[in-house]
Amino acid sequence: MSELPAIGQAMTFRKTMTVAEQGFFTGISGNMGRAHVDRAFARTQGQPDMLVFELAAAGLFSTAFGRLAGPGFRLGGIELGFDRAFPVGSSLEATATVTESAADKVRFDLSATLDGVEVITGKALLVPLDAPHV
Q: Which InterPro entries does this UniProt record tie to the protein (predicted)?
């Protein structure tokens, strides 16, 4: 078993959300929400471009989960809040901070910022791969 992360340990993953990734997420999820896939429609709604899929943006946290908790854990639960929409081309910084660390669970506080402003907040629970539904 890997060494458990320390409480307070954190990791930030920075990524610019691209048009290509919008296409990939549309293909994976089947989500065809017009503001996410139709640039002209998004602009008629007062947006500068198509909007980033919120769940694609939230996926940035998974990089930190894997690196901090290690390969023996899986996502057991997640709670997210999105303070606002943001356009494709946005560069997000997603930070996961360990708040609890034990053999049977690792908990995180989540925060993502755009240009220094917090746009996503939340909490996540990781459990061992063979743990039952929580």
A: HotDog_dom_sf
